[in-house]
Structures are given as C-alpha cells and as structure tokens.
Amino acid sequence: MPPVLELKGITKRFPGVLANDHIDLTLNEGEVLTLLGENGAGKSTLMNILYGLYAPEEGEIYIRGKQVTINGPGDAIAMGIGMVHQHFMLVPVLTVTENVMLGMESIRHGLFLDRKSAAERIRAISEQYGLDVEPHALVGELPVGIQQRVEIIKLLYRNADILILDEPTAVLTPQEVEGLFKIIRTLLADGKSIIFISHKLKEVLEISDSIAVLRGGRMVGTADPATSNERTLASLMVGREVILSVPKEPAQPTDVVLAVENLEVMSDRHQLAVRGISFEVRAGEIVGVAGVQGNGQTELVEAMTGLRQPVDGKITLLGQDITHANPRIITEMGTGHVPEDRQRDGLVLSYPITDNMILNTYYLPPVAQGLMLQEQAIKERAERLVAEYDVRTPSIQTSAGSLSGGNQQKVIVARELSRPVKLTIASQPTRGLDVGSIEYIHSQLVRKRDEGAAVFVVSAELDEVMSLADRIMVMFEGRIMAILPAEGATKEEIGLLMAGVTPETSTPIQEAV
Amino acid sequence: MNEQTATPTQEAPHKKASPLRGLLVPLLAIVTAMILGAIVIITTNESVYETLQTRGLVAAIGRSFEVIWVAYGAFFMGAFGDPQRMIQGLGEWISTGDGTRWLRSLYPITETLRYTTPYIFAGLAVAVGFRGGLFNIGAEGQYFISGLTTVFVGFALKGMPWFIHLPVAIIAGVAGGALWAAIPGLLKAKTGAHEVINTIMMNYIAIRIADFMLDVGGPLSRGDGRPVSPFIETSAHLPQFFPSNSEIRFNMGFIMALLAAWFVYWLLFKTTLGYEIRTVGQNPRAAKYAGMSVSKTIVLTMVISGGLAALAGVTDILGVLRFMPNAFSAGYGFDAIALALLGNSHPMGVVLASLLFGALRAGARNMQGVARVPLDITAILQGLIIIFIAAPAIIRSLYRLRETDTGDEIVLTRGWGQV
C-alpha cells in the first residue's frame, strides 16, 4: 500500500533564503510523523506548501500514491488535509457548532442555517474520539485545551484524514497534553494520520512513530523514537552537542533584593488573582514560579513591574517601597523585565531592531542627548547587542515582526539583560522557542545570577522551573502553595502542589515568609 | 550552499522596500484616476454625444480625445501655468521693465502653492495623529477656532510693530487650535472616550461658535451688516512677496508650511518625544511597559496635531484673506485625512499629496472656465485617487505589482474603544 502522503524534492525559495531545500517526507497511514527543527528551520514553510498557501518551486506531492497539486487551502481540505494552527482560527463570540460550520454551513430551506444537524454531527464526532466538547458552548468561554479540540473537530467535520498539528502542546498544561495524546491515539486507531510539529523533545519521543529533523531548510535526518533520546534529537536539530540541563553552581544568595508582603492584585475581570502572597528574592539566586497558567502569575509579575496597581500589600525593591511606583521608576532602580507576551508587551513589531533595543532607555544617554535621539549610538548599541546575544537577523534595520520567535525573544533578552540590573524578572522566557535558543536564554539568566542579580522566573514549563531555579515557588489560585529548594524536589511533588494538593507526608515544606 | 546561508533566520524573508517603490502606488493611483476621470468627462460631455449622432462613432472618439486634451490642458495651465507665456513675460520684464505679464503668467503656479499651504498644515496635523494612533477628524474645528483667535489678535491689537504683532497673532491662533484639540485628547486619555466621536462633535461646536462670533451683530463681526470680521492690522500681515496689484496670493505661509513639514519629520523621527508618540501609536502596551505615560503622550499628540491644523487657519487669515468670513471653511479639515493617507503619514508624503490637491484645486477653476468641465470633476478625481490609495490591492492587481513588505506600514487606526 502506498503511503498516505509523500513529498519528494520540495524546494521553496524566498528572496535571499532557501526555505526548503529538496525535502523528502513520507507519512504512513495511522502513524504520527514528527517534524522537528529550530525556529526558522523551514517547518512552517513546508506545512504551508502542504496546505496550499505557498507553491513550491520544485518537487512533487503524492497522496495515496497519486500525484497532486495543491493550489489553496480549499484544495488541501478537499484532499483530506487539515491543519490546526498554533494560533487558533476561531471566532470567540460564536458557539462551537457555528465555528465548526463556518465555511461549510449546512442550509435548511435554502436560507436558514441548519445548526441542529451540524450539532448532532459534532456530538457524534466528539463521542467517537472522546473529545468531550459541548456543541452549544461559546468558544470564547472554553479553556484553551478545549478550544484546541474544537479545531480538531473542525478538521474531522471536513473529513480530513491527514491532520497537521502545529505546536499543539505549546499552550497546554501537562494534564491537557496527556488528554491530547489520548485523542491522538484514538484518531490513529481510526486510520487518521498525523503530522506533529513540536520543540518539546520528551513529547516528541512519546507520541511519534517516526521523526524527521529539519535544519536550515534541509532534511538532516530521520530518527526512530524507539532508539533515540532527547540528547541525540537535540544535537541532530541544532547541529551540535546541546546541554539540556542547565549547568550551574549552587546558588550563593546574599541580600534581599525584592520583598513582597501580603500582596493582593486584581485581574482584568476584577477578581482577586493574587491573594495575599509574601516571598523574598535574594541577590545571587533564581526563584522559579511553577504553576498552571492563570493562577495569578501574570498579575503578580505585572504588579511587581508597575504595570498593574496592587489592591493591597507591599512590594519593596532594594529597601524602597515600589508598591505604587510606575514602570519607569522600577526600571531605573535596576530591574530588567522579559515580559510574558513578547509581541504584545515587549516589542514594537513594526520597529526595526535598532528602535526595539532602546525601548525603555530611549531617553537616557548615550542614545539620547536631551531631546535628540542619537542615531549613531542607537546603531552601535544594536550592532553590539545583536552580536553579543546572537540575534540572527539580516540587518539591524530588520523589523522585529519579521524575526522568528526565538530571535524576537533574544532581542528582548539582550535589551533587558545588557543593562546593569539588580533584579531580573522573566516571564515565560522560552515559550515557543527551540532548543538552541532555550539553552542560550537559560545560560544568560544563570549568568545574571552569578553576577549577583536576583532572578525571578515564571514558567508554565515545570521542567524549565526545575532545572533553572534554586528555589521553587508553587502558585495555585493566587496563593503560594509552597516555596521549596529545587534540590531534592520531585516532579510528582510539585505537580501535586500545582494542582492544589498539599501532600501531608512529604519533604518539609518551607512555609511562605 | 554553505552552512551560513543555509540557516534562514526567519520564516518570512525580509525585503527592503526602496523609497521609490513607495511612490509607485500613489503615482499609478493618480494616473488611473485621471484615466477614469477622462471617461467621466467624456460621458458627461454634450458635444461628444452630438458628434456621435451627427458624424458617427469614429468621429465621436476623435472628439472625445479632443475634449480630454482641452480639459486636461486647461487643467495643467490652471495648475502650473503656461511655460511659453512665462518666458515671454520674463523677456518683456527684462527688456521693458514692465513685469505685469510675467506676474500674470506666474499666477497659476502661485495659486497652486497658495492652496497647497493649508493642505500641508492640515495634512501634517492628521499625519501626526495617525503616527500617535489617533484619528483626528477635528482639524476642521481646530482650523475654525484658530481663525477666531488669530483674527481677534489681528484686528484688536493696534499700533504695534509687525515683529511683535505678527508672532503674537500666530501664537494666538496656534494656541486656540492646540487647546481645542487638547479637549478630545484629555477625554481620550482620562476616560477612554473615542477621539473620532469627540473630534467630530467638537467640529460642530467650533463651527457654531464661529457662526455666533461672526454673524451680523456678533462679538467679532465687522458691524457693516455682513457676517465677517474686521480686517486685521497690516502689522499682522504675513508678507506676500508679490506686488499687491498682481492678484498673486502666494505668501510666507507656504514657506512656513515647508518648515512645519521639516519640523514634524524632525520631531517624529529624531527626538525622544517623537519616539514616544510613535511607540504609543504602534503599541500602547509596549509603551506602558517602556515606562512612557500613554495618557500624557495622547494629549500631547492632540495638542501638536491641533496646533498644526491651526496653522492652516492662521496662514489663510494672516496671509491671504486678512479677515475671517463666516463660513470660513474650505473643507481642508476633511481633505486632510485623505492627505495624510495619501502621504502615508510621512511629512514628505503629505507635502507631495498637498501639492497634488493644491494643483487639482487651482487647475479645476481653469478647467471650468476654459473647457466648461464642472469643478466637481476634481472631487471625483480626488475621490478616485483616495480609493486607489486606500485599497492598494486594486492598483497592484491592475498593474501586476508584487506585494511589498508590510513591516514598515503604519497602523492608521485601531478598533473602537481601545486605549
């Protein structure tokens, strides 16, 4: 039997860049093929070709042994190819049914939407694959994990049997990832085939039947998950040996840099998101916050950086009360902040790298003298930081929006860590980044610690917190469940705390200060 | 391929857009609009229909080209003048010392520049707003208020030397417009009220205030039974350079407009204040993160924008009219939105767009006089040009142009109700 999907010699050029260089790929029925590669390795280009968004310059596509040309998403869908994008394509104000119908509405009496029969079909699909989605729920009110299932239903509703999942786990909690994998296995059992894109090597090893590694637009190899491990995959992907665990000496904490006392912060929905928490961060240590997203971490960091007014409590930085200080004062006191949402808060995407590198120091010498911006100084800074922090860009005049996610993050890290800061706050510093970039950003955070800065890291990745932090602070529903030394902490223990369960018989929990 | 180039650093490659490429779409938009305008002229021309009935299709097509030749010929003569007459006039001036004909031949081009002047100021006003993420539809109202304050200082202060009176009159006008614009700015910054609604409403208020002030018997009316203000003192006149009997209305205002364009460029792109304005305009969240005061910047942007719009009124009154009539408006405030759009909110682009609109305005009069093509055709031309600029995809597909990098395109407005 011919494979479900076969790509032969796919080549795509952009001006100055060979995005795909004679790529061959084979997907067998009922299997998960993982595409592995750094940001910018050409995965998205390849998938966009498969989805009909780009036309390849060379190469052939075969579906079940038959050569096809795909001229647009419409063609792709007709051929049974469906894609769940990293950023969901859903209308939040519509129901699940309406979202799924969108673009192929079933019509009653030639005029009216037939929501009822569509909802029935959705319910059937949902039951068949264990998706557990209520057809009449409003999409905007569903958690991210369920929204993703709505996207999967959209594909199944259109009878797709080749499913492309673009970094589906990036937005999920560990439990949700387990749920997704269960769904994937059900889909496979039903004869669907899946192309899985991810950076997370552990997951890739768990779910894949075969792994194809892209680097620099070329297929550099395939790997058998049964005989591979994270280390071999990472080096294949990056092209050199990669250190997966963060190499660092034991912390030598000294003075208290940041002290938070009984802090209470409201969320955008006017609910108490941070419920009276207290902790300290000392110079020379990394405190990592573990917790499922949405448990008050975002609001906590915003309060600490002056972006959100706390309703109660006190924040002290270097002995000074900054509870109601504005971001500028906090920055000037020596805080570097890598924000959670790099595109929304941390960068002006339309600005070139040069202008992004001065975002919070634009008014200070040497980049400004009085009212005048100093173009030469701005350029020199950008050139120096781009070189020092390994930002890969054609030029310092390239707009931040056209950089890959990893390089966007490096621009922010360069800007925030190159200042002589005493406190570094990094929120989700490596979200969506590839192994090489993660390794680099981790090493920079550790370097900052070793230089004597206090470092505060928030991450949804438990592995990241555990390998990076000296002390781990677990947050659940706006409260601190525990603050414990990273040394000796186990994943199970922290996982339970993240879920709000206090273990009675466990290592002694250091009570929140 | 070596390893270096085999590592693309981005999924979508960056293309560097040359400045000339930026001009391509506007130029093609103008050409396309003129072609469509020609069709409108032909289809509304009686003589073309007569020819069609009496002498057939071929003759009618010939007649059509003749009509267009005459109409657009008259347009260009009206907008830029007749080079032949300029040379003759100059020769006469040199040989006989009589410059009357030379000046007369210069009238069209100076008239274009006269109209260009308020367009530049108003266009810059809207452009600064766009850069700061604000849609200032209130240039019209700011223009009215500045007219009132400048004309009042112009006629009420007497016996002053020009070097005091003129600057004071200018400052009064700018302050009037700037303060008027600050109100919707404050409302936006403090309450989140959308500036589009509020600037429109402020327009109505401004126009009615002007109406009250200038109407017969009003506080600023001349008192001769006409709804106009008194004439300003000569000490508040902007210099006109040409002898007053030449009818040439070109004045110092045009040079001020060019200086203003340079100033706006300098402010936006070379100063920390401009960096703040642009950052707030592009990404207010990042601006807040960077420690900027978003609300202060919004108010300041409106003040600068209003001050620029005010200069349109100031130069019209001090440089051209020398009094303020009721129904002062020439629609500059609304054309300004089109100018900023046309000029991509760049000061240089605004100057070029203003020259175009000034030429359209000056040329249209001659076209009506000579070729009997109604003035309204310029409104149609302007409308078509703006549509083609606003929907560049039409022009791109028409002329098979490739999509350019969208990286440096600015966001003109954000959705309703956002800060």
General description of the model:
The complex is a heterodimer of chains A (513) and B (419). Chain A is α/β, with parallel strands linked by helices. Chain A is 31% helix and 26% strand. In chain A, helix 15 links the parallel strand 21 (423-427) and strand 22. In chain A, helix 14 (405-417) packs parallel to helix 15. Helix content of chain B is 71%, strand content 0%. Chain B has helices spanning 19-43, 46-80, 83-96, 100-131, 139-156, 162-191, 195-214, 252-270, 272-282, 284-289, 294-321, 332-342, 347-371, 376-390, 392-398. In chain B, helix 5 (139-156) packs across helix 11 (294-321) and helix 8 runs antiparallel to helix 11. The radius of gyration of chain B is 24 Å and the shape is globular. Mean pLDDT of chain B is 87; it is low at 1-17 and 405-419.
Q: Tell me the series of helices and strands of chain B, N- to C-terminal.
A: HHHHHHHHHHHHHHH
Strand order of the largest sheet of chain A: 6-9-10-3-11-12
For the sheet with most strands of chain A, the description reads: 6 strands, mixed
Oligomer: heterodimer
As residue ranges, the low-confidence spans of chain B are 1-17, 405-419
Please state the average pLDDT score of chain B.
87
Distance between the termini of chain A: 65 Å
**N-to-C span of chain B:** 49 Å
**Total strand segments of chain A:** 24
Give me the Rg of chain A, rounded.
24 Å
- Determine the number of helices of chain B (DSSP H or I, runs of at least 4 residues): 15
Approximately what portion of the residues of chain B adopt beta-strand conformation? under 5%
Comma- or semicolon-separated keywords:
heterodimer; A: 513 residues; alpha/beta; 6-stranded mixed sheet; 17 helices; 31% helix; 26% strand; globular; B: 419 residues; mainly alpha; disordered N terminus; disordered C terminus
Give the SSE map:
The complex is a heterodimer of chains A (513) and B (419).
Chain A: E1 5-14, E2 17-27, E3 32-37, H1 43-50, E4 58-63, E5 66-68, H2 73-78, E6 81-84, H3 96-101, E7 107-108, E8 112-113, H4 115-128, H5 144-157, E9 162-166, H6 174-189, E10 193-197, H7 201-207, E11 210-215, E12 218-223, H8 230-238, E13 256-266, E14 272-282, E15 286-290, H9 297-304, E16 312-317, E17 320-321, H10 327-332, E18 335-338, H11 342-346, H12 353-356, E19 368-369, E20 372-373, H13 375-388, H14 405-417, E21 423-427, H15 435-450, E22 454-458, H16 462-468, E23 471-476, E24 479-485, H17 491-498
Parallel strand pairs in A: 3-10, 3-11, 6-9, 9-10, 15-22, 15-23, 18-21, 21-22
Antiparallel strand pairs in A: 1-2, 1-4, 4-5, 7-8, 11-12, 13-14, 13-16, 16-17, 19-20, 23-24
Helix pairs in contact in A: 14-15
Chain B: H1 19-43, H2 46-80, H3 83-96, H4 100-131, H5 139-156, H6 162-191, H7 195-214, H8 252-270, H9 272-282, H10 284-289, H11 294-321, H12 332-342, H13 347-371, H14 376-390, H15 392-398
Helix pairs in contact in B: 1-2, 1-14, 2-4, 2-13, 3-4, 4-8, 4-9, 4-11, 4-12, 4-13, 5-6, 5-7, 5-11, 5-12, 6-7, 6-11, 8-9, 8-11, 8-13, 9-11, 12-13, 13-14, 14-15
